[in-house]
Amino acid sequence: MTTTTATAEADRRTVSGSTPGAARGPRRTGRIRRIGLPYLLLLPALVLELLVHLVPMVIGILMSFKALTRFSIRDWGAAPWSGLDNYKVSVDINAPAGEALLHSFWVTCGFTVLSVGLCWLLGTAAAIFLQDTFRGRGLLRTLFLVPYALPVYTAVITWAFMFQHDNGLVNHVLHDQLGLTDKPSFWLIGDNSFIALLTVSVWKGWPFAFLVVMAGLQNIPKELYEAAALDGAGMWQQIRRITLPSLRPVNQVLVLVLFLWTFNDFNTPYVLFGKAAPEAADLISIHVYQTTFATWNFGTGSAMSVLLLLFLLVVTGLYLLLTSRRRKTADV
């Protein structure tokens, strides 16, 4: 009896001693599965990113070093190697191609600054003033998001009809109804084309700023406004001292996204003006398109696209570096 009990106790110790080692294998397998699951879920997005963006980008960079014209585009891999000639032509401001690209660059910079600034200003103002509860607030929020919800082509085509010279709604209101102009204006050609392009860009872009800022305002505690009101702070002081500093992280991301979207905008000028944009509204995206497909100079067009990419990378890097330093300074 004693021998049987001792044997059972020894077997129990053996089993209990071997249990952690036996359980270690399944735990390690489960840990590997948990670590590998995020990568597995990201795999489709990575494959699409590779096929849609990275592969065409690499091909475009290779094309920028070749003398590609309408005669060699069929077999672009066998086109003659031109080295940096396409880049030299693009940056030579004394040559017609370089001068036109520089003009388009400055037009795009001015358009981007005005569009991003107005989108942020209108979106922030609307989001702040719609924070208070009042009758009809939900309806106004819905109406403000309509331009953002509409397809780009539908919205821009509608504005193109409204900017028509003879029967457009804009001239009908400004000239016929209000009498603000001496005669109907041309909005899709000439200098006014820049105003038309800016109007459409702001109209369809500010609801996105409104949506982002409105979401950021939900994270600001109401107690801060109540305490500021008890201290005698007015509405503008509360916006300056509480709202804007609290929205700084949101605005940093918002301004960067709006900048990239606006600077690279191709759909708006293309649908509004067609293949040939007026000189006053010659954005760099439509200019690269015209250089590439209107003159069939694919090598120079590819070089301009690479230069645009490098510019955006440099500006984005400097912006992120500057904002990160400000954030660290504020935290200290």
TrEMBL record:
It comes from the Bacteria. It is found in: Cell membrane. It holds the Pfam family BPD_transp_1. Residues 1-27 are annotated as: Disordered. CDD domains: TM_PBP2. One of its GO terms (biological process) is transmembrane transport. Its main location: membrane. The chain crosses the membrane at residues 37-65, 105-130, 142-162, 194-217, 245-263, 303-322. It is a multi-pass membrane protein. GO terms for cellular component: plasma membrane. The keyword Transport applies. InterPro entries: ABC_transporter_permease, MetI-like, MetI-like_sf. Residues 105-319 form the ABC transmembrane type-1 domain. Keywords: Cell membrane, Membrane, Transmembrane, Transmembrane helix, Transport. Belongs to the binding-protein-dependent transport system permease family. This is ABC transporter permease. It comes from Streptomyces antimycoticus.
